[in-house]
Amino acid sequence: MEIVEIFLPTPGVMNGxxxxxxxxxxxxxxEYLPEALTLSEVSFILWATQxxxxxxxxxxxxPSAGARYPIVLYLVAGGDEVEGLKEGIYRYIPDRHSLLLLxxxxxxxxxxxxxxxxxxVALAPAIIAFAVEFWRTTSRYGERGYRYVWIDMGHAAQNxxxxxxxxxxxxxxxxxxxxxxxxxxLGLSQKEHPAYLMPIGRPSPDAPRSSSWEEIHEYLTRNRExxxxxx
Length: 231
Prior knowledge:
Number of helices: 8
Helix content: 25-40%
Radius of gyration: 19 Å
CATH class: Alpha Beta
Structural class: alpha+beta
Order of helices and strands: EHHEEEEEHHEHHEHEH
Mean pLDDT: 95
CATH superfamily: NADH Oxidase
Low-confidence stretches: none
Number of domains: 1
Distance between the termini: 62 Å
CATH topology: NADH Oxidase
Largest sheet: 7 strands, antiparallel
């Protein structure tokens, strides 16, 4: 199949909530409404996760040890679930802020099965799949590079969580899966290793919510009234 490249809308100000509200509102969401995502929403989340934020180096939105950037992002889109995209598996290209269509078809159910039957993986409109290339970091830092790669992953995944929250969307990190099966579904190369899956969707009314600032204040006040033993 000829590889098709889709150029994403240039990310910009999304007029989202203030940062403190985003931190308060962030939850792990596994229940989604059957509504499509817009291409602008997908564009912003991908950029926030691994996009270019400094053009002279270039550097990305999430820090990376030695700027080695071992993370490779894939987008798995369902049928008519992301406006403007065919169902399929795409690779994100940060330097061009684009998506390469690698395989057509809806692979969400296969990823859910590879994720030990976690149904919400199949029900989300789209899934961001993280793969890592350890050699990019270990070639400079040796064995300690493996630790740095997982630190990089934490930075990037939290960006995904917060970007989704800014847009009023929900996501959850999925680390329980069969590595070989996920790699097969995504069509990863031998140098790439599956690391994380993050389904993205609009939270349903049943999705978990965060406490209000008033509730948080009351909680902290109650705790401060009791005796605390520091160890």
